């Protein structure tokens, strides 16, 4: 993998590398198309230009460790051989923001339960917690190696989900006014416990609002779609591109991976048929995405993850 990372990227990704203000780069697409390979390679290239780069895997089936042949955890760890590239693997669902931590078990439950009753809020809170941690660290560029599409879209919507949930909670709080205090007092929640839960919510709300604004700023955030020249992948890319547009998230780079180029084939009927099939979809990509940078990468003879470095 280290070898693969050192290969120069196709010139069209140069724009991405030269775009110095970019802080958040998401790499996503269908399962197995090459997201991890591309995001690791991109992170290595970025580290050559930027001060301090972090690559985060948000795929519960993490594979940064396999790609770099090094064990990573939920804390950033320097990638072997690099001085300014770190990696971490987080599971947004597992990093629970535990409201029971703010006070003893008996008093935490009422507000904690109220908070948890908002759909998706647990996952959203955990994501906010990861973002809060990352925001306090000294990285000027963060690359996300994401899980296959459905999960990634949910992740990108989390800041909005949490913001809506918190807004509801805050308006409930002001509507109920003193009544909420009385109820929580009856439930055994002391003023301190309630105050610290609310303070925690306020703090997370501030992080989430900040992240939400940053994700929607094309100077700070972009999404790189990775795909292969096949029907399902083309279809999924279109779904992803539309969903990103609906969420106001910039996307202008599509990496089409695993292309079989003519000169790689000597007299194989199967390969010639695959080339024709790929060409059909490559033409469709060209038609559909003329405003995008399309980066075309060859299918290599060997899988990259197992290439000895
Ligand atoms: N251009 C290529 N040529 C040959 N092998 C490749 C190429 N790109 C990726 N691979 C190999 O394909 C496999 C899948 O790649 P990778 O892990 O990057 O995909 P992914 O999209 O991250 O998968 P997942 O959805 O499981 O996370 C790996 O074994 C990788 O080495
Ligand atoms: Mg992967």
TrEMBL record:
Swiss-Prot/TrEMBL keywords: ATP-binding, Cytoplasm, Endoplasmic reticulum, Hydrolase, Nucleotide-binding, Transport
Pfam families, per database record: ArsA_ATPase
Listed InterPro entries: ArsA/GET3_ATPase-like, ATPase_ArsA/GET3, ATPase_ArsA/GET3_euk, P-loop_NTPase
A Gene Ontology cellular-component term: GET complex
Catalytic residues of the enzyme: 59
Principal subcellular localisation of the protein: cytoplasm
Coiled-coil ranges from the UniProt annotation: none
Similarity section: Belongs to the arsA ATPase family.
Subunit structure: Homodimer.
Stated name of the protein: ArsA/GET3 Anion-transporting ATPase-like domain-containing protein
Species of the source: Symbiochloris irregularis
């Amino acid at each position: 993998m280290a070898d693969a990372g050192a290969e120069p990227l196709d010139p069209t990704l140069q724009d991405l590398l030269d775009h110095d203000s970019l802080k958040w780069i998401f790499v996503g697409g269908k399962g197995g198309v090459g997201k991890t390979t591309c995001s690791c390679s991109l992170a290595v290239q970025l580290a050559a230009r930027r001060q301090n780069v972090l690559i985060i895997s948000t795929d519960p089936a993490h594979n940064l460790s396999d790609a770099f042949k090094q064990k990573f955890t939920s804390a950033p760890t320097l990638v072997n051989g690099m001085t300014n590239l770190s990696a971490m693997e987080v599971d947004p669902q597992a990093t629970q923001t535990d409201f029971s931590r703010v006070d003893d078990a008996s008093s935490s439950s009422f507000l904690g339960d109220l908070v948890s009753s908002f759909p998706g809020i647990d996952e959203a809170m955990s994501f906010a917690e990861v973002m809060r941690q990352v925001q306090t660290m000294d990285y000027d560029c963060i690359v996300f190696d994401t899980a296959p599409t459905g999960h990634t879209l949910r992740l990108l919507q989390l800041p909005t989900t949490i913001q809506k949930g918190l807004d509801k909670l805050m308006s409930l709080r002001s509507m109920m006014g003193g009544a909420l205090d009385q109820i929580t007092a009856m439930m055994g929640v002391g003023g301190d416990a309630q105050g610290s839960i609310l303070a925690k919510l306020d703090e997370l709300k501030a992080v989430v609002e900040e992240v939400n604004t940053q994700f929607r700023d094309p100077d700070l955030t972009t999404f790189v779609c990775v795909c292969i020249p096949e029907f399902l992948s083309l279809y999924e890319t279109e779904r992803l591109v539309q969903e990103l547009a609906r969420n106001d998230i910039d996307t202008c780079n599509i990496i089409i991976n695993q292309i079989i180029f003519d000169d790689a084939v000597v007299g194989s009927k199967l390969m010639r048929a695959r080339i024709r099939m790929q060409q059909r979809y490559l033409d469709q990509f060209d038609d559909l995405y003329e405003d995008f940078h399309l980066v075309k990468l060859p299918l290599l003879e060997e899988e990259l993850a197992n290439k000895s470095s």
